[in-house]
Amino acid sequence: MRKYSxxxxxxxxxxxxxxxxxxxxxxxxxxxxQYQVQTITLPQQLEQSSNPHAQTLVSYxxxxxxxxxxxxxxxxxxxxxTPERREGALWEYNWKQDAxxxxxxxxxxxxxxxxVAQFNGKDTEYDYYNWIAFRATQSKDAxxxxxxxxxxxxxxxxxxxxxxIDDAGALHFKVTTSALQQGGxxxxxxxxxxxxxxxxxxxxxxxxxxxxxxxxxxxxSGQWWVYENGEVKDSGSWS
Length: 239
Prior knowledge:
This protein is α+β, with helices and mostly antiparallel strands. It has one domain. Helices cover 16% and strands 44% of the residues. It has three helices and twelve strands, in the order αααββββββββββββ. It has helices at 6-15, 44-47, 52-75; strands spanning 90-97, 100-108, 112-122, 127-139, 144-150, 157-165, 171-177, 184-190, 196-204, 207-216, 222-228, 231-238. Helix 1 (6-15) packs parallel to helix 3. The longest helix is centred in the N-terminal third of the chain and has 24 residues, at 52-75. The N and C termini lie far apart (42 Å). The model is unreliable at 1-28 (pLDDT under 50).
């Protein structure tokens, strides 16, 4: 089976998105919404820690941020492209990327916006016909959202990022990579003071199994646990 790099595979899918263009569009009124994904901020002392477990935690969080940042960079159409609306509160962008016809639809709903990208045509590896490359949603108050990318010419999820901000200002996030390294999930919380927690799950025989857990404080100190067969195998802390 072909292996995908988490960053390169996601970018390769998102750079290209297309679908056939509808006839007789009408010009939209108002600007299309911008996706505002929330990224993760850690204490500086934690990012500079020499402890190997703290460094592993930082690498996980950086990967989650790269995933999140990759999403927003590819939801935006190229400069100079004017949106078109088919009907109602729908923005539609259509452009070409070499031999691909790219279509991005942004829909306003009652309490959220949604983004859907499809493409037709071909790149250096695949021929596409109305394939949905990614979907995204965001609440109108910008306090929650999700993004899903798919493997080429399938409905199999390559990666998914969901997030929400609670009333106390804490960021709750979940990153799922169903098609990478046999699948896995990060589930975390980052508080306004930059303290937080993170759990790492591995998908084994269709089940998500907890394999690592981290908790850290606003001063950068923290604790870690490693699990095996549902039991704590090892644990420790850093300061």
